[in-house]
Amino acid sequence: MDQRISEIVAKYGTDPGSVIAILQDVQEELHYLPRAALERVAGDLSVPLSRVLSLATFYKAFSLKPKGRHPVHVCLGTACHVRGAQLVLEKFERELDIKTGETSPDRAFSLDAVRCVGCCGLAPVVMVGEEVHGKISPAKVAGLVKKYRK
Amino acid sequence: MAEVATARTYRLHLMVCAGTGCVSNHAFELKTALEREIEKHKLENEVTVVPTGCNGFCERGPILVVQPGNVFYQQLSVKDVPHLVEEHFLKGRPVAKFMYFPPEEKTPVPVLSDIPFFKKQVLVALRNRGLIDPEKIEEAIARDGYKALAKALTEMSPEAIISEIARSGLRGRGGAGFPTGLKWQLVRNAVSPNGGAKYVVCNGDEGDPGAFMDRSILEADPHAVIEGMVIGAKAIGAAAGFVYVRNEYPLAVNRLAVALEQARAFGLLGRDILGTGFDFDIRIKRGAGAFVCGEETALIASIEGRLGEPRPRPPYPAQSGLWGKPTCINNVETWANVPVIIDRGSAWFAGIGTATSKGTKVFSLVGKINNTGLVEVPMGITLREIISDIGGGIPGGKAFKAVQTGGPSGGCIPKEQIDLPIDYESLAAAGSMMGSGGMVVMDEDTCMVDVARYFLSFTQDESCGKCTPCREGTKAMLDVLTRITEGKGVPDDIALLEDLASAIKDTALCGLGKTAPNPVLTTLRYFRDEYETHIRDRKCPAHVCRQLNIYAIDPRLCLDKGKGCDVCRRNCASEAISGSKGEAHAVLQDKCIKCGVCADVCAFGAVRVE
Ligand SMILES: Cc1cc2nc3c(=O)[nH]c(=O)nc-3n(C[C@H](O)[C@H](O)[C@H](O)COP(=O)(O)O)c2cc1C
Ligand code: FES
């Protein structure tokens, strides 16, 4: 892991202004930011760990906890909200047997709520990994989970 | 400048929408299937398939438009392809069954521009939507892309550019509506410390939940934004620019990166642009998921690699922005308007719209509306025209109740004001604002107290926590609203909300906090009775606030239609349903936690909500 992180850091040079971009690439690679990775980034850029940590907790794109192989993001943006997104989210909680913000014990799924993925014309919208699924009703949730479980 | 590759002349161009909405509806599978079928019929030298940016009519995706002829096909699936290719593209007989049928009509509308959704739209910022492949600069150039840049760099002085933009009446499309020409003049006049650089920034953070205008522009026509920024840079004297794009928009980031690369290769960006000696380049910065970063001072902090927290203004970014240098920040849509104004002239642009709001505005028309999608309309159009004519009214014969504009900073406009013209001043007078262009339609099944609570939970969540009024004040308001939606409100709560709202408005540090009370204030202004019903009668008229609902099963429907199917009992989260398979079921009210699952799973409509 250290090797890979140093490669990412090298791509941006040692400009401390690049911390956010570096953390984004690390998050993309590992799906979360383990403490060791934050320490490595701080060390490579010679910035205090506290600064890296405060960025990693301020921005919502970062997660300090491991996510599932299929991260599920249920949109709770306004368009999705008025079309019943809350019921979709609750259905996912029951179907996956985890609460919003958690990861399933087998690390297959994690469940999070997000505010708008910019696909509002198809509300309610759910993202699984990078795939967008539109017009999702609670009745469609079980089928969707099954598709990814395989 | 590199030679524009002369495109092979095809008989037909099949424009497949590859915006995010259509991609989620398998647009790329459709494209592959079309290409395969075209090859099968040996038509590949006559018919070509072009992936485009968002067409706008997301509701009907995936969408295919055939050019020339502008024939509009909708909701196509891979299995429709063989028939379509053979009939239309081989034999020349357009296929009616894949066309758009207006609700309850038996004849289709074959041509895109005749479809009511498109008829009243006027495309300026979205002038190339659906007409070009955003990843091919040649196609943008063929549609007059970079023509304005050439004019601005070779024929116009910076002062002339600024005065052209000022005379057009263009105002910022990112929310506040500040006059763009004036902003540019301020940045041009500002003196950079030690004679250093100035910057231009494109704000593509698009935080308003329920809005996707900027995403679509970046995905459909990234060159329009790049061209606008180069012109702006020339006008204010900037040597570098940044586009700050939301992290949630990977496709927009990719298309923009491709476009920047191509613009450089064509000598339209980078060193010595068009041989005029002007150097300017643009870099992409990805956001990291914080709504407050759309605010300009927070955005600057984020580009600099710091926490995205706003700071007090003045000084405005025009004086002291990125790294303390004068910085011109404009929204994606604002930048996309610039080239057309330079190309066609300020008088042409100022001829569209109203006295104080010129040009067009892109809105994302979503929520409880038949034709969801992206629309660009002239300023001054009425809400009624947007909702009834373009949007096709409310689904399921429900009654229209309100429309929300301006996102978390805006407000809800009630049906009584449906003839309100859309411009900066009218929306503000109605208690809302133009915002960046989200337009969420609400029907009789929407609870306005719930909507207010929704927005407060959003701002509370997104408050950066730096100033107390926003951090603590929004929390206090949210607590009151939650209490009301749970049936625990007290009569004084309305006055309490109003007091909190005015305190936050007056004392919060940035726009996020100052405008956070707006959704509550407008719903109190127009829908006060709904608040009162929640508090006094402990009832939610729209049955949205579940804690106020009573769930009951109609025994006749349960038995006659559902044969006592038992699905509700098995799904009930709190063992609050009695009965077994084959019997009529009933809800045990003392055990019911009002999760609403039974109503949701019953396929026979036997669960009543009161
Ligand atoms: C909380 C908050 C969020 C904002 N979000 C955005 C945004 O997502 N996009 C945007 O262009 N402007 C946003 N703005 C407005 C910017 O601060 C700024 O006024 C704008 O980018 C200027 O560009 P314009 O003059 O072209 O509109 C936001 C402002 C506030 C207070
Ligand atoms: S509100 Fe859900 S995608 Fe925009």
Task: Note down, in words, how this protein is organized.
The complex is a heterodimer of chains A (about 150) and B (about 600). Helices cover about 50% and strands about 10% of the residues of chain A. Chain A folds into 2 domains: about 1-60, no CATH class; about 70-150, Glutaredoxin (3-Layer(aba) Sandwich), CATH 3.40.30.10. Chain A has about 150 residues and is of the alpha+beta class. Chain A has helices spanning about 1-10, 20-30, 35-45, 50-60, 80, 85-95, 140-150, and strands at about 70-75, 110-115, 125-130, 130-135. With about 600 residues, chain B is α/β, with parallel strands linked by helices. Chain B folds into 5 domains: about 5-105, Glutaredoxin, CATH 3.40.30; about 135-350, NADH-ubiquinone oxidoreductase 51kDa subunit (Rossmann fold); about 360-445, Ubiquitin-like (UB roll) (Roll); about 450-535, NADH-ubiquinone oxidoreductase 51kDa subunit, iron-sulphur binding domain (de novo design (two linked rop proteins), Up-down Bundle), CATH 1.20.1440; about 550-610, Alpha-Beta Plaits (2-Layer Sandwich), CATH 3.30.70. Chain B contains 24 helices and 18 strands. Chain B has a 5-stranded mixed sheet with strand order 7-8-6-5-9. Chain B is globular and about 85 Å long. Mean pLDDT of chain B is about 95; it is low at about 1-5. The chains are: A alpha+beta (about 150), B alpha/beta (about 600). Chains A and B meet through helix 2, helix 4, helix 5, helix 6 and strand 4 of A and helix 1, strand 10, strand 14, helix 17 and helix 24 of B. Flavin mononucleotide (FMN) binds near residues 203, 296, 510 and 512 of chain B.
Strand order of the largest sheet of chain A: 2-1-3-4
Highest CATH level, the class of the largest domain in chain B: Alpha Beta
The chain-level mean pLDDT of chain A equals 92
Question: How much helical structure, as a percent, in the residues of chain A?
Answer: 40-55%
Helix and strand composition category of chain B? alpha/beta
Q: Unreliable segments of chain A (pLDDT under 50, ≥5 consecutive)? A: none
User: Which structural class fits the helix and strand makeup of chain A?
Assistant: alpha+beta
List the ligand species: flavin mononucleotide, FE2/S2 (inorganic) cluster
Uncertain regions spanning at least 5 consecutive residues of chain B: 1-6
| CATH-assigned fold name of the largest domain in chain B | Rossmann fold
CATH superfamily membership of the largest domain in chain B, which one? Answer: NADH-ubiquinone oxidoreductase 51kDa subunit
Q: Which word captures the global form of chain B?
A: globular
Write down the CATH class of the largest domain in chain A: Alpha Beta
Largest beta sheet of chain A, briefly?
Answer: 4 strands, mixed
Question: What is the CATH architecture term of the largest domain in chain A?
Answer: 3-Layer(aba) Sandwich
Q: Average pLDDT across residues of chain B?
A: 94
Measured between the Cα atoms of the first and last residue of chain B, the distance is 69 Å
The biggest sheet of chain B, with number of strands, parallel, antiparallel or mixed sense and barrel status, is: 5 strands, mixed
- Secondary-structure element sequence of chain A? HHHHEHHEEEH
Strand tally of chain A is: 4
